[in-house]
Q: What sequence folds into this?
C-alpha cells in the first residue's frame, strides 16, 4: 500500500487550502475515488475529507428554490420530505442509485464532480436547468458538464451546493445495468416555466446530453402520444458490451415515454 496523507477539513476554506498540498484530492463518499486508488488508477498524495462538513449537508426548500448541499448523501436526497413535495422526481431518482451501501455514502457533489457518463445526477441537473455553486462562482448545468468525466471545475474549485427551481412536472426513468445499477440509458424530462427540457445519461459517447428530438416533440404536447414514432439517431451514442448504439437509441425513446407517463400520472 502506498502512503497517503489524510486530512479532515474543518471548513470549505480549510479544504481549499489543503487542496494545494501536493496532488491532493477531495474525499466525500469515496464511491469512485477509493476504488480508483485500490486499482492504482489514482494515486493522490493527500486526501481532503469534506464528508463531515455540516455546511455542505442538507436539503433546503425555500419558496421557489431548492438547495442541496454537495455532501448530502443519495439516501438523504431520496428521503427528504420537503424535496419529495417540491420535486418528487429527483427524490425518486436518488432512490434508484446503486444499492443501500452506495446511497448511504455517495454524495450529489461527488457524483456531478466525477461526471460519469452513466451517472444519474448529471441528467437530473441538466434537465432541471440547475445551478452548481462552488467556493468561487456559480455555473449553469448547461455549461458545467463538458464531456466524459469532464466538468467546468477549475483546479482547487470545490462544489458546495446545487440549486434549482422545482418544475411543474418531471420524472426520470432508466434502464439499468443489473449489476452496477448504472444507467445503460436514463432519461429525465421536465416541464417548467422555461418550457420542456430532456436530458439523457448512459448513452452519449461524450457523456450526458439534452435531446433536441424529445424536447421538440414534447414542447408541442407534453404527453406520451407526442413521442409516438419518435426516431432518435444512433450517431454519437455509445456501443459497448452492454448495448449497441442502435439499441441505446431505441431505449432513449422508450425511457422518454415512460418518464413522460410518470410525470403526468
A:
Amino acid at each position: 500500500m502506498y502512503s497517503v496523507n489524510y486530512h479532515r477539513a474543518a471548513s470549505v476554506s480549510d479544504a481549499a487550502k489543503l487542496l494545494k498540498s501536493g496532488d491532493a484530492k477531495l474525499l466525500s463518499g469515496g464511491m469512485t475515488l477509493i476504488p480508483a486508488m485500490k486499482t492504482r488508477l489514482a494515486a493522490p498524495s493527500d486526501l481532503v475529507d469534506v464528508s463531515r462538513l455540516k455546511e455542505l449537508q442538507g436539503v433546503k426548500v425555500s419558496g421557489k428554490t431548492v438547495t442541496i448541499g454537495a455532501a448530502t448523501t443519495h439516501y438523504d436526497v431520496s428521503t427528504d420530505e420537503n424535496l419529495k413535495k417540491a420535486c418528487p422526481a429527483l427524490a425518486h431518482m436518488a432512490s434508484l442509485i446503486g444499492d443501500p451501501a452506495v446511497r448511504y455514502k455517495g454524495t450529489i457533489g461527488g457524483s456531478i464532480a466525477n461526471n460519469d457518463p452513466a451517472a444519474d445526477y448529471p441528467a437530473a441537473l441538466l434537465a432541471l436547468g440547475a445551478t452548481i455553486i462552488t467556493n468561487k462562482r456559480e455555473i449553469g448545468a448547461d455549461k458545467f458538464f463538458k464531456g466524459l468525466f469532464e466538468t467546468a471545475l477549475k483546479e482547487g474549485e470545490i462544489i458546495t451546493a446545487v440549486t434549482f427551481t422545482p418544475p411543474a412536472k418531471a420524472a426520470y426513468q432508466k434502464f439499468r445495468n443489473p449489476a452496477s445499477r448504472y444507467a445503460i440509458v436514463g432519461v429525465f424530462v421536465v416541464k417548467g416555466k422555461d418550457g420542456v427540457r430532456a436530458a439523457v445519461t448512459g448513452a452519449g459517447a461524450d457523456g450526458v446530453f439534452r435531446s433536441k428530438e424529445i424536447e421538440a416533440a414534447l414542447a408541442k404536447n407534453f404527453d406520451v402520444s407526442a413521442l409516438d414514432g419518435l426516431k432518435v439517431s444512433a450517431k454519437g451514442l455509445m456501443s459497448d458490451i452492454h448495448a449497441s448504439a442502435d439499441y441505446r437509441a431505441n431505449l432513449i425513446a422508450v425511457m422518454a415515454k415512460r418518464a413522460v407517463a410518470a410525470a403526468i400520472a
